[in-house]
């Protein structure tokens, strides 16, 4: 499938008038970057695979697996980020289209929220294409850690929280044994390339916390105040996520499906109320979410829509999806009908399909779809039939994903 995808990319380069990129199917340009730090990522990958394949790993306590996976994923993501020839983690979010040029505008949060939707022409592409959440977070972090490597490490550490949070949700959705075997696939996922120094990675972590909380709330034995409180908390987290990315709202479908599948329909009421709360607070402070969405679409229409052919980029975006998710995507899709984790797969798949059909996927999905990638691969180690044993430890698939990540990072220079 990947070879077919790369053939599509070659045809697009040969026959499309202007793709807007020199690195199809990705957005950016190609170059070769080999230096001494290039050894770090392979060493981390080998260490993770060796540790996961030891018989003793299957006997580790669940908490050790969760937080050990976080440490391993952080090492993996940082090692990939150091391959960036522009300065690695010391060169985050800069450039004429990045966030940092607009950080000073968010120094006064209340004034910034009230004025945000009227600042379209004064915002960079990244800032105008997202709600004000990323700039507000950066305005908080920059005085503490600066704009150099400290900021890069802080953002990467926040983004990598996606891994333990997804594992917690996976334990609830597909069982602990399958979640344990999913861990190396998740840690060494190729999409880690775009997690380092990424605001979309922060959105991914927020959504992972939302899904973990929602899964916890909807478990069959969860009753009374704990169920109600965590359902509201999941909704609040979803609302906060939508203040970082307009597309984050799509993952609310996963919780809706999950609550119906687990016969907890009233949880949707509590979660919905919680999700609306941050948006209502923002509205009272002067930021209208729908107005922000219209501003983002207007910016997208003027900069991108008319300049990149939809048909070619629809195909290229799906190629990026295959490369970013690796073999885990195929394994997960094959088991979707047999896994109780299907709500997460369906919710994320709907988000991806909508963006393609609506013509919004025209380059850059490698970072725009970061919040959806983990959920598309969630069922990779789920049982092949309901109630059956989980799949074997996917050492080979994890290794393929790791090799893919190292190769892509070594030859691709993207703007994020």
From TrEMBL:
Keyword Transmembrane listed: yes
Keyword Membrane attached: yes
Superkingdom: Bacteria
Protein species of origin: Actinorhabdospora filicis
Listed name of the protein: Uncharacterized protein
Taxonomic lineage: Bacteria, Bacillati, Actinomycetota, Actinomycetes, Micromonosporales
Keywords: Membrane, Transmembrane, Transmembrane helix
Residue spans crossing the bilayer: 32-52, 64-83, 137-170, 182-207, 227-257, 269-290, 310-330, 342-361, 393-413
């Amino acid at each position: 499938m990947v070879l077919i995808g790369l053939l599509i990319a070659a045809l697009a380069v040969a026959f499309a008038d202007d793709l807007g990129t020199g690195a199809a199917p990705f957005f950016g340009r190609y170059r070769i970057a080999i230096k001494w730090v290039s050894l770090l990522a392979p060493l981390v990958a080998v260490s993770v695979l060796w540790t996961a394949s030891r018989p003793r790993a299957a006997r580790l306590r669940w908490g050790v697996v969760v937080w050990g996976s976080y440490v391993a994923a952080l090492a993996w993501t940082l090692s990939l980020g150091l391959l960036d020839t522009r300065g690695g983690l010391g060169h985050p979010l800069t450039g004429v289209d990045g966030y940092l040029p607009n950080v000073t505008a968010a120094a006064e949060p209340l004034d910034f929220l009230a004025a945000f939707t009227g600042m379209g022409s004064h915002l960079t592409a990244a800032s105008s294409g997202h709600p004000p959440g990323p700039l507000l977070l950066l305005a908080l972090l920059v005085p503490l850690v600066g704009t150099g490597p400290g900021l890069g490490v802080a953002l990467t550490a926040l983004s990598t929280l996606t891994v333990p949070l997804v594992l917690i949700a996976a334990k609830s959705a597909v069982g602990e044994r399958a979640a344990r075997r999913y861990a190396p696939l998740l840690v060494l996922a190729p999409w880690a390339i775009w997690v380092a120094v990424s605001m979309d990675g922060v959105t991914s972590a927020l959504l992972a916390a939302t899904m973990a909380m929602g899964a916890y709330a909807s478990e069959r034995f969860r009753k009374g105040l704990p169920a109600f409180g965590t359902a509201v908390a999941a909704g609040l987290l979803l609302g906060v996520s939508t203040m970082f990315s307009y597309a984050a709202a799509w993952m609310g479908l996963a919780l809706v499906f999950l609550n119906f599948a687990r016969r907890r329909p009233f949880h949707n009421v509590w979660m919905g109320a919680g999700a609306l709360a941050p948006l209502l607070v923002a509205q009272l402070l002067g930021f209208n979410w729908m107005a922000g969405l219209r501003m983002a679409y207007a910016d997208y229409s003027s900069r991108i829509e008319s300049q990149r052919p939809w048909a070619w980029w629809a195909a290229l975006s799906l190629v990026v999806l295959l490369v970013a998710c690796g073999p885990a995507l195929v394994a997960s899709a094959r088991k979707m009908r047999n896994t109780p984790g299907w709500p997460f797969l369906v919710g994320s798949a709907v988000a991806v399909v909508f963006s393609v059909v609506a013509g919004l996927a025209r380059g850059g999905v490698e970072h725009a779809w970061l919040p959806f990638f983990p959920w598309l691969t969630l069922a990779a180690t789920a049982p092949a039939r309901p109630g059956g044993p989980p799949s074997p430890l996917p050492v080979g698939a994890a290794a393929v994903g790791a090799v893919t990540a190292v190769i892509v990072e070594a030859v691709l220079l993207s703007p994020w």
